[in-house]
Amino acid sequence: MRIVLMGMPGVGKGTQAERLRVEFGVPHISTGDILRDAVREGSALGRRVKATLDAGELVSDELMQALIRERLGRPDARGGFLLDGYPRTAEQLAALDAILGALSLRLDAVLLLTASEAEILRRLGGRRICSGCAAVYHVDDHPPAAPGVCDRCGAALVQREDDTERVIRARLQLYRSRTQPVADAYRQRGALHEIDAAGDPAGVFARLRRALGRT
Description:
single chain; Rossmann fold; three-stranded antiparallel β-sheet; 8 strands
């Protein structure tokens, strides 16, 4: 099974990606992991990534394309993969088409997790991180026993800057302008499956399985 997983920030892609990885026995390939692995391995591509990141610059589409091609060409991905975080733009969509063509591969499905903007604001805006041990809480869904205090180590809980409403709305706007057109393109191809991401993770996963023909 070769899958692209898409969705707005905070929609629950990470949780569902892990479940899909186990269900289908394929590697979960995220852009963040690819960048970190390349730097750690010290390959020629990895050295280019490190130099770019050390300079405080964004990784170019050309370099990201090379990394994606290298990763999808590895033996563990030949039998399938779950691609998370790529493509995000129309240019990356064209690049992925070229990569898959060069490797004689094709996608089986594109899964788009959806949720209302209000729900995304609630999920991300309510997230709190322990300043001591980095444990994750949520003011509604997973509150600490004592407000503002970590259950594990007693340190103060904080809200990350990228979890403030202003930043969340900016991230959502960026998603709508750059990534939503990618989903629309896959929809026109008949490859897109939209899955409601509201509710508990188990229920969302059941909807994902049905979309992929698993009963």
